[in-house]
């Protein structure tokens, strides 16, 4: 597994957020569009997340605002769920509950994420679990680029690659 981070020069916003853009490669190719990127803070900052585009790129947001707070993070990824067909009805709650077809869809998504496919191009579950992910990233005060290259068959803990 190879993890690289390159610092860019840039300014922050008045809200303490700095720009963080990056890329996710799986087996040397861009990750599937719709994969989720999640930065879980190690200190007193807020989590940030983003979604991978078809070219493997992502931009982080914190509470729906562009950027992330400077600090250390554990990084997790989940596979895209875009291949799971969405119901034909709108997601409009009825009496506070989502429509039944959406509840069935959410059950399929949950099952998919709990037991992701195994094979080329798929993100292994170890990268989706905060307590197990080997991936870390430090967001610099001026913002930075976060580049991740992972394999669909993760390197076992303690093994060199």
Give the N-to-C terminal Cα separation: 6 Å
- The backbone outline, from C-alpha atoms, is globular
Overall structural domain count: 2
- The CATH homologous superfamily of the largest domain is called Carboxypeptidase-like, regulatory domain
Oligomer status: single chain
**Average pLDDT:** 83
Supply Rg: 17 Å
The poorly predicted ranges are 1-13, 157-161
- Structure classification: mainly beta
| Biggest sheet features | 5 strands, mixed
Q: Beta-strand percentage?
A: 25-35%
One letter per element, helices H and strands E, the order comes to EEEEEEEEEHEE
Q: How many DSSP H or I helices?
A: 1
CATH fold topology of the largest domain: Immunoglobulin-like
Name given to the CATH architecture of the largest domain: Sandwich
Count of extended strands: 11
CATH class of the largest domain: Mainly Beta
Considering DSSP H and I runs of 4 or more, what fraction of the residues is helical?
under 10%
Architecture overview:
This protein has one helix and eleven strands. By secondary structure, the chain is mainly β. It folds into two domains: 2-79 and 117-150, Immunoglobulin-like, CATH 2.60.40.1120; 87-115. Strands 1, 2, 3, 6 and 11 form a five-stranded mixed beta sheet that branches. A four-stranded antiparallel beta sheet has the order 5-4-9-10, with no helix packed on it. Strands 7-8 form a two-stranded antiparallel sheet.
Topology (SSEs and partners):
Blueprint: E1 2-7, E2 20-26, E3 29-30, E4 36-41, E5 48-51, E6 57-59, E7 61-62, E8 65-66, E9 71-78, H1 100-114, E10 136-139, E11 144-150
Parallel strand pairs: 2-11
Antiparallel strand pairs: 1-11, 2-3, 2-6, 4-5, 4-9, 7-8, 9-10
């Amino acid at each position: 597994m190879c993890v690289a981070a390159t610092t860019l020069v840039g300014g922050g916003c008045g809200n303490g957020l700095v720009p963080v853009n990056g890329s996710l490669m799986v087996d040397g190719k861009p990750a599937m569009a719709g994969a989720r990127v999640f930065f879980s803070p190690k200190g007193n900052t807020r989590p940030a997340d983003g979604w991978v585009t078809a070219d493997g790129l992502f931009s982080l947001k914190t509470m729906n605002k562009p950027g992330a707070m400077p600090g250390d993070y554990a990084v997790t990824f989940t596979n895209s769920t875009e291949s799971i067909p969405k119901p034909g009805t709108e997601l409009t709650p009825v009496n506070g509950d989502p429509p039944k077809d959406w509840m069935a869809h959410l059950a399929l998504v949950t099952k998919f994420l709990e037991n992701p496919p195994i094979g080329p191009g798929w993100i292994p579950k170890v990268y989706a679990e905060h307590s197990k992910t080997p991936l870390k990233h430090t967001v610099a005060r001026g913002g930075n680029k976060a580049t991740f290259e992972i394999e669909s068959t993760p390197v076992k803990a303690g093994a060199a690659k």
